Amino acid sequence: MAGSDIPSVSEEDRGSSVVVLAALCVRYLPLAIMLAVWELVGRSGLVSQQMLPGIGAIAAAFLDLLQSGELIVNAWRSLSRAATGLGLAVLIGMAVGLLMATRPMFRTFINPLVRILYPMPKSALIPLVMIWFGLGDASKIFLIFLGCLLPVIVSAYNGARGVNPFIIWSASSLGASKDEILREIILPAALPDILSGCRTALAFSFILMVSSEFVIAKDGLGFLIGSLGDGGNYPAMFAVILSVAGTGFVADRLFGSFASHRLRWKEQA
Amino acid sequence: MTADFGIKIEGVSHAYSSGQGQRAAGTLALKQTDLVIHNHEFHALLGPSGCGKSTLLYLIGGFIPVQTGSISTQKGPVTAPGPDRSIVFQNFALFPWKTVLENVMYGLQKKGLPDAECRDIAQAHIKLVQLSGFEQAYPSQLSGGMQQRAAIARTLAVDPDILLMDEPFGALDAQTRRVMQEELRMIWKRRPKTVVFVTHDVHEAVFLADRISIMSARPGRIEHQIETGLGLERDESTLTDRRFVELGEQIWRLVREQAVLASRGGL
Amino acid sequence: MSPYSASDYRDQLLQTLVLAGLASLWEVSSRAGWVHPFLLPPLSDVLVRLFTDMQSGAVFVDLGLTLYRALTGFMIAAMLAVPLGLLMARRRGVQWFFDPLISIGFPMPKIAFVPIFILWFDIYDTSKVIMITFSCFFPIVTATYSGTSQIDKWPLWSARSLGATESQLLREIILPLASPAILTGLQIALPVGMITTIVTEMLMGGSGVGGAMIAAGRFADSVGVFAGIIEIAILGMVVIRGLDWLRARMLVWHPENRSY
Lengths: 269, 267, 260
What we know:
The complex is a heterotrimer. In chain B, 36% of the residues lie in helices and 24% in strands.
């Protein structure tokens, strides 16, 4: 997706840090404009400060939340849930997808479940995980796990099925066994698809983390946003929302650079 | 026990069922094919596209199971792919996530050789195909000709008894193709192996092979077998050799017949 | 459509049997008490509930509202995002302004903004639809922009040399060439839109499947929760299949729909 839009600086500009800085400024000027409009709309009184707190107020609320530890504690709760669910989904999803592509019987048994679960909007399972696992961590981790699992399975399956058969034949004529072909050939060859599935799963993990914490409100960032909103502390609510959005953005970018590092063999000279 | 043949093909027929490849249900690709390829012979399989020459090669390689008839080598009947029969494909089929060196080392590692030895043998073969200096490059960073050299090095490195080549130069431009043909013949002269070389290029077959089998239009069969008799040495001068030119014309007529038949066959 | 062979049919049959097996396992394990019926009410109870709700019409009201909200938000997003994506790829100024905003907005979990939309637009349909539009917008604009930027120059040059003007180029050449990417964007956005619809319904209430389910959950009515899941699963499958169908229709010319 929007992977390659790290500030693009043309070849001849490279080397001059001033030019790079200027290019960065030009690139991110629109963001500054948007922030300025936000601030001006707030100050002009067109919209009440309640509805659109000023940037200063939001920043101050952010610092308060940071100092009181509220933000850190809840962020830790949320992110550890998301990471657990996502991590399990990636491990299991990869294995299931690869096996589906290479073992026809396995595919016959798993495919019906995938076909039912894949198109289902996973947020519909929130009341179910609440019934099954209560209001604690388990319900949210399970929801995130299930939501992230399907994109990983489907991408691993499609990636493994799409592997050039001649590559597999080459490996077997060089003496690789069935297991070695799965681990050493099919897995790396399917990696581009798997990583893009994982990126989708990462986005889902954030969506489901926040959604489940909104609905099953006990703790976590979603809960914090809700309770700040209920209490009318809108600058703080905005601060947490923007922190969540920023964390999602950073996580995606980190994953993107990890993926392009792993896939550096794809780049043309 | 050593047999006097390199590969023996007896009464092999092959039908593609639906769902295998893109062919229609139950297409007969090979019909009652018999062929003996001598030990250390450079043998070309020539024929119009869709005549089943690649199918025959894949059967020898053990990539697709033999349905009727039998194929055997000095090691006995062919049942599965193995490093005694290594293959070079038209589209190179290098492992794109491995460097040239890692690609060439792969088959050696599968033999269970120690890492240092793998590295030495791989380096030697990279040198043999004149790719020294590109050991650490990924396939995507190489030209088509260089990728095919790497693929040939990877295949030769495991020192197969039989070298299978599936239109290996088909994806290369004319100049590169010419250079690669000469180099292949040179490498083969130094390290004689049984080579089965599939192509639809008449002059490539004549230039490279000791013997050529011309296959008929689908269902494929060996229609003619011709000794080229051009001797061991092949180079620039071979191209202007009277025998080379005559053979080329004669074989071209035979192949053309089959190609016309194939296009009438409603493919 | 590719013709199925005998082994494909056998596989289809087996898969159906697997499903039937799972359904019976569900029914039996609940009836026999292997699993507490509150955690997993018998499938037959759930189906009976679905049937009575269908007779009373409640299912159709809920499903209809959910579908209406999801599709309205989705279509507004498409109508805004596709032209913007095309313009970003063709006009440097538009690209300069929107690219940083879109590339920052794309990976953000938009669902976190629900409380802001509640604050601004209250909890009724306007608010829900705007939230759905907001979450569908970014995948569509990103896919349109990147797909349009990657179009080969050859068809454009051909069209130019045949006398096409810039606006004809945009409508008659670029839009069709970008349509696979645009449809992919829509296919990414639709499931996101469905997830968002359900969550907004759960949070803001009002009728709709999401609201009905959360009510069932609060009243510990697990049969109701399962009935809701089945309704949503069917709804999700129908809209996603619908979009797949639309893609096949619109891209008959594309190699992806080649049948051998």
